[in-house]
Amino acid sequence: MTNSIKEIEHNDVLLIIGSNTTEAHPNIGQKMKQAARRGAKLIVVDPRKIELVDYAYLWLPITPGTNVALINALMYVIITEGLTDKEFIETRTEGYDELWSVVKNYAPEMVQELTGVPAEKIYEAARTYATTDRAGIFYTLGITEHTSGTNNVMNLANLAMITGHVGKEYSGVNPLRGQNNVQGACDMGALPNVLPGYQSIADAEVRERFASAWNCEIDEKFGLRIPEMIDFAAGGYIKAMYIMGEDPALTDPNINHVRKALANLDFLVVQELFISETAKFADVILPGASFLEKDGTFTNTERRVQRVRQVLTPRGESKPDWQIICELATKMGYPMSYNSPAEIMDEIADLTPIYRGIRYNRLEGDGLQWPCPTIDHPGTKYLHAGQFPRGKGLLQGIEYQPPAELTDEEYPILLTTGRMLYHYGVTTRRSASLESFRPEEFAEVNPEQATALGVKTGDKVKVVSRRGELITKVRVTKRVKPGMMFMTYHYKESPVNILTNAAFDPITKTAEYKVTAVRLEPVNK
User: What Å distances lie between residue 151 and 308, 397, 401, 506, 507, CA to CA?
Assistant: First the structure.
């Protein structure tokens, strides 16, 4: 996030795109509702009639996979009506002419046919966002889980820059991260092309600094991303995997392919709290400790580093993850020894400029937001004040590209996936209270499809895609448009990722969970 969570309730316009915030990020969703009650205008871009639509000034019911076209149309209105921030464009960006050469072809009257969003709503949304000073953009996986995910994000950055809505308090571009510490994991280099602090492996000086600190050589070649690992395992090129706190046999797309890949490995180690679907394929299971059983930090979506404190003794043979890694590295011939997570944080600070001023003794209370470059720095509430990391922001014209998979006569319904309020990932189903409240999937289908199939809420249907099929109960609702349906990924009994497409974004390799062509078939009662 370029901005801070506390700013949300003081925004005057919130452009919420690809984010069912009240279910996926309920604390932040509550702040958005508070902003609406105060008089803020919410522009909600979502194919489903989610809860925030009830608080919205405008609802843009977009067809999944058409985000680039819609954002281009918003910019078309802003540019043609003279609503850009000319000074910001001139002093802080480059590439404007190239951007306009693409955007000029996306008039709302044309784009409404692609996106399903009426042209008049596009005009009103563009004017509202551009003419309000405190205007923030908020997005989640509805933007990134597409084959065009990177383009979606870059186009949102274009929109913010041409209006000057970035680099200041109360306006910016804010991804709401999918897990409590996914920001921290990325910060620490859990990516195949960077070391901690987003320092590129391609930079020889960076490699030398880490090699000296760690007393080892740092390979300059980039690693693989998850879809590539799965494909290489299926093909026999990767022989072993070490999977920590992840359940790809249930949560990755096209899980029939994933399960074949895991079964094809010579050796699989899984580090987990429970016997997950992935752990069932493991040769060795290493029992990790939960967040209540270890000390450490989480870095949340607003870049805030916060302490995690142990309150329970790890059960059985389980250990904190950092201790398991240290013992495993030592047994493999690389002695790794730390006395505590605080000592590890000191090393992080020494090697990572954005964390340089962060030490455990400074994390009491609310923690600190990076970048925090010195020991007396208060942390950074919002990013890009004055200039961007590359100097001037790069405006790029981005053409719309359709999703990897489209509906047709055989598969006429567009399935999109996501989360619900009552479960998180796949582990909360081990909570007896949550499981008693929501023990099974209810796929959302429109009354039009329900009538055609002759089903009502609670009935079962078969959902079939080009990759697999499953049986699920349905909830008949107008939350989804005709020709669409929605399912969550929480349930192993109706694993939606048997259906989903493993096609991925060429840059991030994030799969297109949000667009799958399916058909519905009745199940004999």
Answer: 35, 10, 9, 10, 9
Residue type, 373: P
Query: Tokens 């499953």 label which residue?
Result: 470
Q: Give the pair of three-digit tokens for residue 152.
A: 């979606």
Distances (CA, A) of 244 to 170, 274, 325, 501, 510: 37, 11, 10, 24, 19
Q: Provide the pLDDT for residue 438.
A: 86
137: left (phi over 0), alpha (psi -120 to 50) or beta: beta
Terminal CA-CA length for the chain: 49
Whole-number pLDDT of residue 145? 92
The rounded distance, in Å, linking the Cα atoms of 475 and 445 is 6
Domains annotated on the chain, with CATH: 5-176 (3.40.228.10), 182-223+288-369 (3.40.50.740), 225-269 (no CATH), 413-522 (2.40.40.20)
In the chain, the amino acid numbered 242 is Y
Distance between CA 515 and CA 152 in Å, rounded? 15
pLDDT in tens, 412-457: 999 999 998 888 878 888 889 988 888 998 999 999 999 999 999 9
DSSP assigned state of 93: E
Residue 63: per-residue pLDDT: 96
Q: Which helix (H) or strand (E) holds 343?
A: helix 341-351
> CA–CA separation, 493 vs 471, rounded Å?
9
> Who's near 86: CB < 8 A, 6+ residues apart?
none
**Distance, CA of 367 to CA of 351 (rounded, Å):** 20
CA distance linking residue 518 with residue 408, whole number of Å:
9
Task: Please identify every stretch of the chain with a pLDDT value under 70, giving residue numbers as ranges.
Answer: 525
pLDDT recorded at residue 425: 77
